[in-house]
Amino acid sequence: MDEAVRFFFRAHLQAMPLYESFASRLLTELPATRIKVQSSQISYYYRHLFACVSLLKVRRKEMLPPAYIVVTFGLPQRVLSARIEASIEPYPGRWTHHVLISDPAEIDDELMEWLHQAAVFSAQKR
Questions:
Q1: What is the C-alpha separation between 91 and 93, in angstroms, rounded?
Q2: What is the DSSP letter of 67?
Q3: How far apart are CA 1 and CA 10, in angstroms?
Q4: Domain residues of the chain, as ranges?
């Protein structure tokens, strides 16, 4: 695991296995993905940003599981799913979605389909 990723999770070591499962599957399915580790998120790019992982508090603290990651991705339309913790339209035709992952089983085909769509959507940006 990259030293920058270890540093990112330094206060949340219990979430690292979730991230490792997520990153492994994402890079297997979208191998041309570039990764950029920042202070508040780990970003995934093709030509443009299409997804990120963070430790965003998308629920009240007492409702958060002990170990989790939040996967964020953008699409041209709103996804209606109980799995989406929050979605916003920061500007017309761009919906940002947040999915809380607390179990490796949640890194499933549905999530990966959304990420594939997000990668295609970001590649269409000028």
A1: 6
A2: S
A3: 13
A4: 3-123
C-beta of residue 65 within 8 angstroms of C-beta of residue 58: no
- Alpha-carbon distance 54 to 35, whole Å? 13
Which residues, including other chains, have CB under 8 Å from residue 106's CB and lie 6 or more apart?
83, 99
Residue 81 phi/psi, 5-degree rounding, is -155, 145
Beta bridge partners, 74, equal 96
Question: Does the global pTM surpass 0.85?
Answer: yes
Is residue 16 a contact partner of residue 3, using CB atoms and an 8 Å limit? Answer: no
What is the C-alpha R_g of the chain? 14
Degrees, nearest 5: CA angle 58-69-34: 120
Distances (CA, A) of 24 to 18, 30, 101, 104: 10, 10, 15, 11
Q: Using one digit for the tens of pLDDT, what is the confidence trace for 38-88?
A: 999 999 998 899 999 999 999 888 899 999 999 999 999 999 999 999 999
